Amino acid sequence: MKGIAVYPGTFDPITNGHLDIIVRSCEIFDHVIVAVAQNIRKSPLFSVDERIEMLKEVTKNIPGVEIDTFDGLAINYVFSRNAEVIVRGLRAVSDFEYELQMALMNRKLAEQIKTVFMMPSAEYSFLSSSIVKEIVRLGRSVECFVPPFVEEQLQKKIMPQ
Ligand code: ADP
């Protein structure tokens, strides 16, 4: 398949699960825009600039990826970038209800834009940005769950020396 896909999310911070979805998306679409939501409702740990910096660093060797940010409705951003597809990741059943609601609402708002769901490798299907932050707060390493650059930023932010 060709075309432009947008993968929107909070990415606070990016995990190996998000990365798995980005790599899979790049095998299907020509251009994948990873779009950081300026989602203040979630009170992110990292600023938008910090989240962008981490995303840029860990995707720098993946061709076809662009990192950007948006405010407001994801569907408006998707339109503004002339994309046809929204990519979302689906983990365990717990993601399903929320993702179904979002996908159906987005379809109502813009029929021509399709939502594509991808499942990560089984080893990442229990992984979330929140659990990674919790593990670091409790003093353990998250090196199996995030790229090394992200682990460093987490340690600096949560456990400053
Ligand atoms: P949001 O606030 O939009 O849910 P997230 O950064 O938490 O932002 O997630 C962005 C997208 O990535 C969502 O579709 C989410 O289901 C998916 N995602 C999050 N963690 C994983 C993971 N470990 N494996 C696959 N998809 C994931």
Automatic annotation (TrEMBL):
<keyword id="KW-0963">Cytoplasm</keyword>
<dbReference type="GO" id="GO:0005524">
    <property type="term" value="F:ATP binding"/>
</dbReference>
<feature type="binding site">
    <location>
        <position position="74"/>
    </location>
    <ligand>
        <name>substrate</name>
    </ligand>
</feature>
<feature type="binding site">
    <location>
        <position position="99"/>
    </location>
    <ligand>
        <name>ATP</name>
    </ligand>
</feature>
<dbReference type="Pfam" id="PF01467">
    <property type="entry name" value="CTP_transf_like"/>
</dbReference>
<dbReference type="InterPro" id="IPR004821">
    <property type="entry name" value="Cyt_trans-like"/>
</dbReference>
<feature type="binding site">
    <location>
        <position position="18"/>
    </location>
    <ligand>
        <name>ATP</name>
    </ligand>
</feature>
<comment type="subunit">
    <text>Homohexamer.</text>
</comment>
<dbReference type="GO" id="GO:0015937">
    <property type="term" value="P:coenzyme A biosynthetic process"/>
</dbReference>
<dbReference type="GO" id="GO:0005737">
    <property type="term" value="C:cytoplasm"/>
</dbReference>
<dbReference type="InterPro" id="IPR014729">
    <property type="entry name" value="Rossmann-like_a/b/a_fold"/>
</dbReference>
<comment type="similarity">
    <text>Belongs to the bacterial CoaD family.</text>
</comment>
<feature type="binding site">
    <location>
        <begin position="89"/>
        <end position="91"/>
    </location>
    <ligand>
        <name>ATP</name>
    </ligand>
</feature>
<feature type="binding site">
    <location>
        <begin position="10"/>
        <end position="11"/>
    </location>
    <ligand>
        <name>ATP</name>
    </ligand>
</feature>
<dbReference type="InterPro" id="IPR001980">
    <property type="entry name" value="PPAT"/>
</dbReference>
<keyword id="KW-0548">Nucleotidyltransferase</keyword>
<dbReference type="GO" id="GO:0004595">
    <property type="term" value="F:pantetheine-phosphate adenylyltransferase activity"/>
</dbReference>
<feature type="binding site">
    <location>
        <position position="42"/>
    </location>
    <ligand>
        <name>substrate</name>
    </ligand>
</feature>
<keyword id="KW-0067">ATP-binding</keyword>
<keyword id="KW-0808">Transferase</keyword>
<protein>
    <recommendedName>
        <fullName>Phosphopantetheine adenylyltransferase</fullName>
        <ecNumber>2.7.7.3</ecNumber>
    </recommendedName>
</protein>
<comment type="pathway">
    <text>Cofactor biosynthesis; coenzyme A biosynthesis; CoA from (R)-pantothenate: step 4/5.</text>
</comment>
<feature type="binding site">
    <location>
        <position position="10"/>
    </location>
    <ligand>
        <name>substrate</name>
    </ligand>
</feature>
<feature type="domain" description="Cytidyltransferase-like">
    <location>
        <begin position="6"/>
        <end position="134"/>
    </location>
</feature>
<feature type="binding site">
    <location>
        <begin position="124"/>
        <end position="130"/>
    </location>
    <ligand>
        <name>ATP</name>
    </ligand>
</feature>
<keyword id="KW-0173">Coenzyme A biosynthesis</keyword>
<comment type="function">
    <text>Reversibly transfers an adenylyl group from ATP to 4'-phosphopantetheine, yielding dephospho-CoA (dPCoA) and pyrophosphate.</text>
</comment>
<keyword id="KW-0547">Nucleotide-binding</keyword>
<feature type="site" description="Transition state stabilizer">
    <location>
        <position position="18"/>
    </location>
</feature>
<feature type="binding site">
    <location>
        <position position="88"/>
    </location>
    <ligand>
        <name>substrate</name>
    </ligand>
</feature>
<keyword id="KW-0460">Magnesium</keyword>
